[in-house]
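Objective 1b: paired records.
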Amino acid sequence: MQDTLTALVAKAQPEFAALTTRPEFEAAKARYVGPNGELTALMKQMGTVPKDQRPALGKLINETKTRLQSLLDAALAQIETAELRAQLGPAVDPTLPSPDFGPGTYHPLTLVREEMCRILRKVGFTVADGPEVETEYYCFDALNTPADHPARDAQDTFYLPETARFANVAKKTPEEKYLLRTHTSSVQIRTMLKGEPPIRIVSPGRVYRRDTTDATHSANFHQLECLYVDQNVTVRDLKALLDYIFASLLGKDTKTRFRPHYFGYTEPSFEVDLTATHLPKVKKPWIEIGGCGMVDPTVFADVGYDPEVWSGYAFGMGLERLAMLLYGIDDIRYFYQNDVRFLKQFA
């Protein structure tokens, strides 16, 4: 029996080594260790072997089975390697230069952000930045947003777990929560707390809200907000700046108008509309583009500014909205799909 088992392994070794496909592998496996295989047939003869010889024979059969299994494993690994090599194609020479796919391009949102910052730098604004993870104080409390305001509801704001800790974002009180900022107005609060007026900043950045994604909404998007604080700042200064910005960005035919509105951060507050019928795909005579107003004295008092001395305005708008107007894009989701065919249009 020992000679038969040894011969079985010697026979299987070259046969398994020559296997190149999975069907061949399965067929060979069945011939040797399948229900009707040669090793299985030998195992069935154990009943005819004297009892005193069965332990030794059982050990030989197990050793043969283990040896055949190792040969099968090696054959399968060889087949899998060949299949992977076929999928990958010919070997790549890493010393060769890479194919030239052409120059890269800026994302349309980057183009609009940089153009807006360039326009505002020309009239004295500097770019300010802040963390995307914020606390309730900077995002809501300091902006005169009461605790029961709908914007602070978990259905509108992304709150982080209470166990979360961020070394570079300090809380004002232990009870307040961390959250993903819902607007870049928090940058304005941080800037005012750092120094005295006059202040003239623009703060572009990514913000987050619990919006259902569709053609005009996204759970994450980009805002650009401005803050100007000085003595004797008026609504007329605000209107003049907005007229200048949109005429510079969208063309001299662009005009703006104010509609009364309410924001906790500003008083009085306005929605800003603009005329843009000279732009592609724009049919309405007036389009809502953002919000603005004069900074509420309560906000100044909270950051240590004397509202009797200082006044200022603030406004904000979505960069996606501006890019859609400027380039005639009709679906906000295009900005986040990383489709090269879309992005190449802005080369």
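Objective 1b, second protein:
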Amino acid sequence: MSLFEHKEFDQHEQVVFCHDKQTGLKAIIAIHDTTMGPALGGTRLWNYPSSAEALTDVLRLSRGMTYKSALAGLPLGGGKAVIIGDAKSIKSAELFRAYGRFVNSLSGRYITAEDVNIRTSDIAIIAEETTFVAGTAEKAGDPSPHTALGTYLGLKAAVKHAFGQDNLSGIRIAVQGLGAVGYDFAEYCHRDGAQLFVTDINPAACQRAAEELNASVVGLDEIYALDVDVYAPCALGATVNDDTLKLLKAKIIAGSANNQLATPAHDQMVMDMGVLYAPDYVINAGGVIHVCSEAANMSRTETDQKVRDIYTTLTTIFSRSKSESRPTGQIADELAREVIANKKAQRSS
């Protein structure tokens, strides 16, 4: 099967396969669409079982970045990159510099930033070889706090729509993943009166949540079947799938993870179950908004407002989904495509 027939290929403008023999670098950069501006999206370092799975992930993620930036009103297109390997063993300054040279070869069509297993210190090394980076420690810094805030505000919009409640007091939330974003998100929810159930592969993070947030710690596989109001996936994607939907009791799915639905078909399945889904690339847009403050020279005031606009955008999506009896993900995709089509029309006129 060629790239053009790949199930996740969505008229991507450019896909670059990067290999550096000396450092062992294996990476894929996917530029989905640059109508709105240069393609911005983080680089993810993950030990994919195969290069085919890495390709599937980067194609889905880059498309999501296009729609994410469009609905957030940012002057950016969508791109993403993945580096294949175990973060515990392959990280090196030489590898990141080699990767930086590949990013630089794209002459600004792609701007990279932090993502899973990539920190601001890693971005600093990449920046030694290219200026096409964002989220550097000296400027915008770590986008995680804004991602967490946006996810919290998006959850509040979902709770308002589903339960008619303006705060999270008494709302039972199952948080899957307590990384930099997941923990901050859980902290926001705790302050707003939510009852938390948490799980993570890191026992120390769970212990911290138990002590600081009065959270109940559950097993990795127990999180899906809990009798809760909200399932909040804040780790990796595809946790909403055929197997987990059989267990799910929550009435809302709202979290910070990318690609939460295993397939596009699960959008309709979730709606048919009476579950309200906050489209992932809308609710977790706080991070790219934060990074855009550096890439597009946005002020802190403008950045904060765009993060808070996530609440309004999701409210619009939820209302339109209800009135048209169509899945929220489908509505979000259409709204994003409308933004991009309008931009193309402006260019043609």
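The CA atoms of residues 272 and 327 lie 9 Å apart. The two ends are 39 Å apart (CA to CA).
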